[in-house]
Amino acid sequence: MDADFLFSLPVLALLGVVAAGTYFQTVTGFGLGMIVMGVASGLGLAPVPALAALVSLLSLANCLVALPGALHHLDWRAIRAASIGLLPAMAAGVLLLGYLDQAYAPLLKLLLGAAIVYGGVSILLQAPPGPGAADKRSFFISGVCGGLFSGLFSLAGPPLVYQFYRQEMSLTTIRYSLIFLFAISAGGRSLMAGSQGQLDAKVLLLCALALPVGVLATMAGKRYPPPIAQRGMRRIAFAVLTAIGISLMAAAVPQLFRP
């Protein structure tokens, strides 16, 4: 890999997407995976498995920077219940990704587009508050769904975000509990992806380039939150992700029926 690769337009564009995604996740508690996977795959900057592996490593780094000093905000009861469902489902998702990428690439693109649209809608919609504290089963189910999304596309966010934003918790507790779960998901997925051979030299090099960008964006998000209401940021993310998800699905459908 020479300087032409390091300073190529796709790599520079990917670094810009990483900066936007990590900043957004730092100020909201979610969004890194959906933004990077959605924008980068929509622009064809890298294959889906490589992007998913990259997002896992970046998400883990983002969480490790964002969490220090915030552990007392976590809801451990909810985290434990969600983690029990998340980890085995995440492992199943990684195995399924390897199979679909080799045998059904158009179907994989269609599923990714649908997941991104779902993620965009879940960002925009305000989840209705639940009647008091939810039981452990609902957190377990959201963990299973988030784990499957994480294994396939490194997108654990949508099911977990919807579940946590329905709870009678402070926004600080919700945000840091989500970031902690994303750290568990990203760490476990990175180990699984490495065992499946998905962390090749190119992915590791991209990660080495993107990590400093992500760390700086995380620090900027903690120190300089945007003067935009969270609702406004949700609308922007919804518009971008929905458009990208629909375009991915539209491109995948003809390929599914191509002889």
From TrEMBL:
Species per Swiss-Prot/TrEMBL record: Janthinobacterium lividum
Membership in a protein family: Belongs to the 4-toluene sulfonate uptake permease (TSUP) (TC 2.A.102) family.
Record membrane topology: Multi-pass membrane protein
Subcellular location: Cell membrane
InterPro entries listed in its UniProt record: TM_pro_TauE-like (IPR002781), TSUP (IPR052017)
A Pfam family it matches: TauE
GO cellular component, one term: plasma membrane
Keyword match Signal: no
Protein name, entry field: Probable membrane transporter protein
UniProt KW keywords: Cell membrane, Membrane, Transmembrane, Transmembrane helix, Transport
Stretches that traverse the bilayer: 78-100, 107-127, 139-162, 174-191, 203-224, 236-257
Subcellular location, principal: membrane
UniProt KW Flavoprotein keyword: no
